[in-house]
Specification:
7 strands; 10 helices; five-stranded mixed beta sheet; Heat Shock Protein 90; rod-shaped; 2 domains
């Protein structure tokens, strides 16, 4: 993994600025407090601080590639040994260079006497670097885990969406085949017509299986195929009407999201009634949302068809997985009307 200081230009500049302040402070102490000449004070502060600045960058690799599975004591011992080696190398190298390049008895005496506090400053620098680097490593690991979890959640979301979506076609196919089976006895011509319509519908569904988002116009065309299939079986008992302005048809909508809603209207409307049932579908754009309403008649006195409402449940779960909102599908009932209100955000 790249060094966080050298891999980012902004961090490199800030790092250099911090060390410039340290060098300046070091110089001021040596020159004004210890009364060393400008040249000697500058040489001392530059050599020791610039040297440790470069050593500090290299400490990143010691932290990053250390064995994180080590026990605390093993890790602590490892850093004690490495700090002694690094600080020893830093001090010995600095002392040798300065003693060879500066021939000033007072400064050399000061240099020897300053050894203890230079050890302390070296330990402080080392500890500070190690602490900061461990914080950076922890932060990077957390960010990596967050990204991995986000990727995993996305993968799980895709699997869940596909699972929910794949439950639609078998459910509809089962109902349609039952209808064809009934019509082969009572009306073979209608059975043949239904098989043709069913093949068109399935061809469309399979060709758009991998599509996640489509237009309302495409969804309506698909639903009309479905309703025409059901119309063959129920005849005058089923009427349907679509009220969607032209500008609404281009709105975005999850593919196959309307299918289980219309299945529900047919199942709990036409199936349970001997009278003519009208299914009305309306659509309009309200601010940033596509507002859809599906209204069907039903017979309040009819015996209810058994079922767990898996179609509506799947639709609600799909909407939540896609838009992260749990109020996009609402059901209401009044007298002999059942209404499904669907809201599809258009700005996500």
């Amino acid at each position: 993994m790249l060094n966080p200081i050298t891999s980012n230009k902004k961090y490199t500049i800030n790092y250099a600025a911090v060390w410039s302040i340290i060098i300046g402070a070091h110089f001021c102490v040596l020159h004004w407090y210890y009364k060393l000449s400008i040249g000697i004070a500058l040489a001392d502060s530059l050599l020791f601080n610039v040297f440790f600045a470069f050593l500090g960058i290299s400490l990143w690799y010691l932290v990053r590639y250390n064995n994180s599975n080590q026990s605390f004591m093993a890790l602590f011992t490892s850093h004690i040994i490495s700090s002694l080696l690094i600080i020893g190398f830093w001090l010995i190298s600095g002392y040798l260079i300065l003693k060879q390049s500066i021939d000033d008895i007072d400064y050399l005496s000061f240099l020897d006497g300053s050894f203890p506090w230079r050890i302390v400053s070296g330990m402080f620098y080392y500890s500070l670097f190690i602490l900061v680097y461990y914080v950076v490593v922890y932060y990077q690991d957390i960010q990596k885990k967050i990204k991995e979890e986000a990727s995993l959640k996305t993968l799980i979301k895709e699997v869940e969406l596909n699972a929910l979506k794949n439950q639609i076609n078998p459910h509809f196919l089962f109902n349609s085949l039952n209808s064809v089976s009934s019509l082969t006895v009572t009306s073979p011509e209608k059975a043949q017509e239904m098989i043709i319509k069913l093949s068109e519908y399935l061809r469309y569904s399979l060709s758009n299986k991998e599509q996640k988002i489509t237009t309302l116009k495409t969804e309506i065309e698909n639903i009309q195929l479905y309703l025409e299939i059901e119309k063959i079986r129920f005849g005058d008992r089923l009427n349907f009407n679509f009220d969607c302005p032209e500008e609404v048809l281009a709105a975005q909508i999850p593919a196959m999201i309307l299918q289980p809603l219309f299945e529900n209207a047919i199942k709990h409307g036409v199936y349970e009634s001997v009278d003519t049932i009208e299914v009305i579908f309306k659509g309009e754009l309200v601010e940033d949302n596509l507002q859809l309403s599906l209204i069907n008649d039903f017979d309040p006195a009819a015996k209810k068809t058994k079922g767990e409402g898996i179609g509506l449940k799947n639709s609600r779960e799909r909407l939540f997985l896609i838009y992260k909102k749990n109020d996009l599908l609402k059901l209401s009932k009044s007298e002999n009307k059942f209404t499904i209100d669907l809201k599809i955000p258009q700005n996500d």
